[in-house]
Design the sequence.
């Protein structure tokens, strides 16, 4: 287990201060902003930077954080929880970031095999007097935000109507029914999000909150009765600014939010065709704004709104998780423009977070990912054609492939090859370590390799939680 | 261009000291040990650690260096040297590490398009009085070691006999003839290595040094006449310990050194077969010592030998490059055991380097890679089979695939899919940023993203070269 080598002056006075840290002679609230790029491994970052900033110079906002390390992602087997497997999903990986404990694929802050609830950092922060928030481009009930608040055997238990629906590919130990309120459980993820009274919830997933609970009440009404102001858009001066309601629930789409970018002509990666024994590559394309994203708040706007809310009371600190969810979802669908646009959107939100941290000493900013994704930067078609000529046999990438024309007019080839054409349902996660970028850890020596549990400990220590 | 934020006390006295730095009141020689894992991106490191140390804990030696960053790899186009492409080869990438300047694929420390010689750090160090060394598991004439000393239009110009041989896939501007001694050039890479009087050269490639130069003399004899002691093995107390010759040339194999590990039953990754519309996956295998490596020195032994030689004169510092070359070469061949064994061998050499650095303050240790490689950690067969069932269509990885049984008895699947079966000649490099691990840079703030030119500058600054 990793030990942080640090003389943590703030720890010595943790009895005195629940939500503050000493800076010079003044007490400032301690804050944590955790950004999670879903599926955002090193390859996805390189690809987005190449597209956005070109090959020569320039850094993403996340790359301007002063410290980088790398993170080991760990996953237990549901049927043998003493053993590991090397590919995570967002549920078990976010659960580890949220709880500091390992679990198995599909689980939301519950233990592999034994289904015990694993307490989360957001819950501990709330109990210690911190404000809390979750912001995502996915449904708020999706695995990553869910893992910071809810405890279910499976990520699919999103709304009350999901609780008695069988999940064909999950084992008996991970069916939703055991968590249903009828059976004395904590209920669906949507219900748990509201019951937990998270101060700010911004994202998609309205359809889950429109469902009715076991007493027949719509969750949206239940939310209102628990002090939530409901919003469905974010403006310069919107209703939420004047609200006296203590809590904010913003639902901006029935499900996941539409993504910011699409490929020109809606193009994605395609399987390379062979014609008379020679590979034929599709023409390059570039990325465009997605018209379906019009009127939807950006992740940066949601982050700014959440930070404004969470910092209204200058005496209290907060814990905020912000997820760029569709980097992963678009990579699964072999949509390079979708994933680059979403990584760019997350990066803009990181810039907002850094700006806030500059004004608010005592803010720990962390940017990391939950697991690797399939896409890789590959050689261009002319390279494959030259090899085809010289070896006199077709040389081409075996999966799905796209050539993007970047903002700087460079050509960049992107390949996806974890599931075979023509019927490969979707791309797979990979088992690579993921990056982490850190700011606000002055004096802390960060090792070259951390685990997700270390990130949990770092956040807990920063907030001086028990 | 990145500026290192550092008050570099040693720079102020650089007029006084050519090869030393001030530590407290005493002058110690400044040393650089640069380890290059060829093709060793984040994925290859995760994979090797999973196999060697298991999923739970434990760090590779390189991961115990105190600072990590990430490195942008940059490649120019030969026919448009003002433009970039996103996939490097070892030649242009090592050239940038060695010279601080960018170039195009295939070039050895010469400029893209214009073929100007680009001075290398090893040459500058030698001119400033430092000792110099190159150690590799490849032929010493291979691209990575070559780029630190030689200047040729193409990496294939390895021995005198290569100089008039046409390279079919290289443009006219990159044929070897222009560098031949007959045409007034500096000659082949092997000739340039000897002419440069590098103090220690250890690796493979004896067949290139057995060739004759344009005056009919064998290069091996030429080497002897230039003060090289020749060795063909390394022992506890071998001939080189007593030698009074100033220079050491160890050639331990005709070409690249045999690799340390092979797959049990000589197995590699294979294309997944479809039988009656269902994928059939080959059984897992583990890795064994390669009997062909018997009697061949390990990279750690070569590194120890080189360090002993280069530190004989306590008043002089040195520059040493150590390459784990076959991580890349084995990944090209879809041989996961080969590449993991070679990464492990490099890691053992890094441990030797760190040990030396601990005893010799003033030693900068850098571990990095030159470009990404194809292999990825993928889901296991049971995951693909479950998807095949649920989607009722075959779901399987489209390239080459292997399941390894690790030292801790975990199963790890490795996929290669940058060139399609059944005739995909070899796997391709990828364009991902690569890791860098650093030790001996006290007081230096390292940004979260560097370039290969920054690494050159860091080394040059450490040695206070003009």
Sequence:
């Amino acid at each position: 287990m990793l030990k942080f080598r640090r003389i943590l002056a703030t720890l010595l006075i943790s009895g005195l201060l629940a939500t503050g840290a000493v800076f010079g002679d003044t007490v400032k609230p301690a804050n944590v902003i955790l950004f999670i790029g879903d599926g955002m491994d090193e390859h996805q970052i390189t690809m987005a930077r190449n597209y956005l900033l070109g090959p020569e110079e320039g850094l993403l906002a996340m790359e301007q954080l002063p410290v980088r390390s790398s993170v080991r992602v760990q996953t237990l087997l549901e049927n043998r929880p003493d053993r590991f497997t090397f590919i995570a999903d967002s549920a078990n990986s976010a659960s580890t970031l949220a709880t500091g404990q390992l679990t198995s694929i599909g689980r939301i802050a519950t233990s592999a095999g034994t289904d015990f609830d694993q307490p989360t950092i957001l819950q501990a922060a709330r109990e210690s007097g911190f404000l809390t928030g979750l912001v995502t481009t996915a449904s708020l009930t999706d695995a990553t935000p869910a893992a910071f608040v809810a405890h279910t055997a499976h990520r699919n238990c999103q709304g009350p109507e999901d609780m008695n629906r069988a999940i064909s590919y999950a084992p008996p130990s991970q069916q939703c029914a055991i968590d249903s309120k009828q059976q004395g459980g904590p209920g669906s993820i949507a219900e748990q999000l509201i019951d937990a009274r998270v101060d700010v919830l911004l994202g998609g997933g309205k359809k889950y909150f429109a469902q009715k609970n076991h007493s027949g009440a719509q969750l949206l009404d239940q939310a209102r009765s628990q002090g939530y102001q409901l919003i469905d858009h974010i403006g310069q001066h919107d209703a939420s600014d004047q609200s006296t309601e203590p809590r904010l629930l913003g639902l901006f789409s029935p499900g996941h939010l539409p993504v910011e970018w699409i490929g020109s002509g809606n193009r994605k990666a395609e399987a390379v065709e062979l014609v008379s024994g020679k590979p034929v590559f599709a023409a390059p394309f570039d990325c465009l704004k997605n018209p379906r994203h019009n009127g939807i708040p950006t992740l940066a706007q949601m982050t700014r709104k959440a930070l404004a809310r969470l910092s209204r009371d200058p005496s209290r600190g907060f814990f905020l998780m912000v997820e760029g969810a569709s980097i992963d979802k678009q990579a699964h669908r072999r949509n390079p423009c979708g994933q680059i646009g979403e990584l760019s959107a997350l990066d803009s939100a990181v810039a907002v977070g850094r700006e806030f941290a500059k004004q608010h000493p005592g803010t720990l900013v962390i940017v990391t990912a939950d697991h690797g994704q399939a896409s890789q930067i590959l050689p261009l078609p002319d390279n494959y054609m030259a090899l085809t000529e010289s070896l006199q046999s077709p040389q081409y990438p075996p999966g799905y492939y796209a050539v993007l024309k970047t903002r700087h007019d460079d050509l960049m080839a992107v390949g996806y090859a974890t599931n075979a054409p023509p019927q490969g349902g979707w791309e797979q996660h990979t088992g690579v370590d993921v990056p982490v970028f850190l700011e606000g850890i002055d004096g802390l020596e960060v090792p070259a390799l951390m685990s997700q549990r270390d990130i949990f400990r770092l956040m807990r220590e920063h907030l001086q939680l028990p």
Remarks:
- Chain B is about 25% helix and 20% strand.
